[in-house]
Amino acid sequence: MLARERGARPVAVDPDIRKVRRLNGIKSVIGYDDCIRGTFDAVAIIDVLYKLPIADWDALLDRIRQRLKPGGILIIKEHDPTARIKHSINRLQERLASALHLTLGESFSYEPPPEFIKRLQSHGFAVVEAKRIDRGYPHPHMLYVARL
Q1: Cα distance between the two ends of the chain
Q2: What is the pLDDT of residue 3?
Q3: Which residue intervals of 21-56 are DSSP H helices?
Q4: How many Å apart are CA 64 and CA 43, to the nearest integer?
Q5: With bands split at pLDDT 50, 70 and 90, how would you rate the model's confidence at 140?
Q6: Lowest model confidence (mean pLDDT) among 17-21, 81-85, 89-93, 110-114
Q7: Higher confidence at residue 144 or residue 104?
Q8: Contact yes or no for 3/12 (Cβ under 8 A)
Q9: Which residues pair with 129 in a beta bridge?
Q10: Stronger pLDDT, 96 or 145, i.e. the higher one
Q11: DSSP character string of the chain
Q12: Selected residue with higher pLDDT from 33 and 124
């Protein structure tokens, strides 16, 4: 909503029609990132990577780098697997959600923040911010903000 208020034209991409259908007034694409074309000022990946095998992360980051305009921003929200108690809670919830078919994907892939920062940098992203944003939440939320 904030992006639209500022004149942006957000596009939501998700392979799960149940999630895309809830986005009133936002252009939605049902599928994966390869089904869209063009370049973007910003890309946000929220709770997605963990459902992809780590072996697929580099190719995805390369595709994002190709579609992001120079100076563009990449926002990623994932989980910090080094927060053992919160990470255990998260894994239990995700196993239940997968068993109930509430989410797509087979993987539970997590990378410690220092390693993920190195991964982003190896793809040409300058990490502007990497911080935990989980105070008061049972899950170990981690925010990464990077620029191309």
Answers
A1: 24
A2: 55
A3: none
A4: 8
A5: very high
A6: 17-21
A7: 144
A8: no
A9: 145
A10: 145
A11: -HHHHTT---EEEES-HHHHTT-TTSEEEES-GGG--S-EEEEEEES-GGGS-GGGHHHHHHHHHHHEEEEEEEEEEEE-TTSHHHHHHHHHHHHHHHHTT-S--S------HHHHHHHHHHTT-EEEEEEE--TTSSS-EEEEEEE-
A12: 124
CB 29 within 8 A of CB 13: yes
For 107-118, how does the pLDDT look when each residue is reduced to its tens digit (9 = 90+)?
Answer: 788 999 999 999
Structure tokens, 65: 């780098």
Pairing of strands 40-46, 68-79: parallel
Residues 121, 68: Cα–Cα separation, whole Å: 15
Q: How far apart are CA 2 and CA 26, in angstroms?
A: 11
Comparing CA positions, the residue from 45, 9, 69 lying closest to residue 120 is 45
Bridge partners, 20 (sequence order): none
The identity of residue 10, as a single letter, is: P
What is the tens place of the pLDDT at every residue in 48-74?
A: 888 889 999 999 999 999 999 999 999
Using CA atoms, how far apart are residues 91 and 39, in angstroms rounded to an integer? 34
**How does DSSP classify residue 135?**
T
- Could you give the maximum distance between any two Cα atoms of the chain, in Å? 41
Chain center to CA of 85: 22
